[in-house]
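queue> pop job 88
queue> type: inverse folding (structure -> sequence)
queue> payload:
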């Protein structure tokens, strides 16, 4: 007997970045001399074939305002264009922005600019890095030129050089 199962989707916390130690600073005063710039937020790497949900938790930015929640999210990836990272569905789960990402070019680290607007009118902008790496092993194409160690030799665009091609 076969049954159709209902799906319950919950964002994966494996790909969540959290704002930590949020402290608003007046424009033009940060970083002060001798004070390092905070590190860029980063999600774990994805393969170009992956279609995954990534999260940004803004809880620290709205601390003390327990009823505030995300109302809108915009996401702009850089670099952008044909063959690059694709932003799919964007959702919010309370104080967590959820972005579905697919595609991308292996060997490229994308910078995603997220702008989050809350129900009370707060606007928060953050950049998050996302490295795209060839994580899935692929067999070389038939006729590809290879080194004695078995690595495929490619041209300057990363395309395999084919014997007799």
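queue> result:
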């Amino acid at each position: 007997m076969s049954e159709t199962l209902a799906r319950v989707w919950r964002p994966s916390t494996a790909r969540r970045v959290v704002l930590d130690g949020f402290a608003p600073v007046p424009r033009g005063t940060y970083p002060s001399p001798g004070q390092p710039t905070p590190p860029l937020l980063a999600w774990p790497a994805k393969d170009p074939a992956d279609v995954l949900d990534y999260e940004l938790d803004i809880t620290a930015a709205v601390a003390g305002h327990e009823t505030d929640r995300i109302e809108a999210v915009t996401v702009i990836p850089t670099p952008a264009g044909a063959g690059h990272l694709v932003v799919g569905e964007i959702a919010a789960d309370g104080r967590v922005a959820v972005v579905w990402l697919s595609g991308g070019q292996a060997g490229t680290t994308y910078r995603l600019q997220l702008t989050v607007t809350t129900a009370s009118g707060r606007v928060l902008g953050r950049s998050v890095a996302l490295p795209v790496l060839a994580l899935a092993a692929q067999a070389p194409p038939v006729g590809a030129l290879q080194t004695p160690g078995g690595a495929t030799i490619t041209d300057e665009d990363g395309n395999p050089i084919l014997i007799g091609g």
